[in-house]
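Raw record, unedited: Uroporphyrinogen-III C-methyltransferase
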Amino acid sequence: MGVGQVSLVGTGPGAPELLTLLGQRRLAEADVVLYDRLLNPALLQFSRPAAQRLNVGKLPRHHRIQQKQITALLIELAQAGKKVVRLKAGDPYVFGRGGEESQALAAAGIEFEVVPGITSALAGLAAVGIPMTHRDYAASFQVITGQRRRHGNPIDWAHIAPSHGTLVFLMGMTQLPQIVARLQQYGQPATTPVAVIQWATHWRQRVVTGDLTTIVTKVKQAGLGAPSLIVVGDVVRLQAALAPQRPLQGCHLLVPHSQRQHLYQQLTDQGAAVQPFWRSQSQPVAFQWPTLMPGQPLVITDVTAWQYLQQYLLAQGQDLRSLAGHPLWTAYQMTARKLREQGLLVAGQGFPAHAVVIGAQEDLPRLNFTANQQAVATYRRQALDQTALPIRDFHGAVFTSQRAFLDLWQGLNRTQQQQLRHLPCFVFGDQIRQLAWQFGCQRCYTVASQTATAQITAWWQQTR
């Protein structure tokens, strides 16, 4: 087996759309993904469902896996021929220990690359309305780590404190009292503005502002902790005026993966933090295609079932011409729309007499058949593990189809299912609502596909 490759991928501060195109591609190609606690779980949507995802997360002063073990694991996986992605918050080479991992990989003869990310020292400030530089306030900036090795180089307070530029401290929350004291000791005025930004670009983002004399108390009162950025300088004065104001800011929503991309974009554009959940994987099943009577209608319950039927016909040396004269019906409006996009006209929606109904093995028994209709299952679904989803952290879930609801439900454990029962659910139609009710989800709101974002926004404004 050949040696694999390691990609150290910077994810930026956390918002999925701030990940670079190359970062997305490497995630989509990865066999194994290593990530830590600072990673936004929504970023994992870019990896393959079959990829192995390993949480090597480290808490301050409490490392789940030591750095040496992580580096050894990267080498071991690469030597086994795997394509490995090591996700790093921000940029791997900006206080991300990417340099240390690169040295170890190079010494082991492992092929590796570094995919830069937007450092939180820049993006985190922009997320709350603080420019790093401004001609009227700061012509320079410095980024300093609050964590240092016991025998590492000390911070040169005499050099940085008198600076008229912006100072940004990363990983410095445990040192906040010492930082403000040292800055004043070495010449910073006590009235210098300070901002502390927690979870920048995440749904949990919060910001507290003050000055060198008040910020420690204000942070303690607000209960802010790591991960946070500490920003010192006159640019902080602009924060209140420049802070983004979006109606869904702070709203954390769960949505189906890869469905209705425009909905995902609309929700994020309004400020929501959107976490996609995995859809079930489809697998073909053996079936016997019946001899059709002249004009016998076909009912397509979903596009995937239709695609597997086409594959079956091709394997038999036939194509869609063999279905000429058999009107196509659909069980749902969404399926009809997708078939029309493929250039296929649909005769109607429903289950006409004597129809052959084509669908998934799990779905067909739930449909109302009459004795003169025949069911053909062309594939089955395999539910994916959803147990890593922190259901209690979400403010609501969006379900665009009955299948989307079942894909999530079947992948959850009992505790998560109980949590979902108490979560507001926004459903695209009464059929989905009735299904959710059957599973005990009583807080359901029916929304229209064209106005879903506006309806969710109105709900959030009333409940926040």
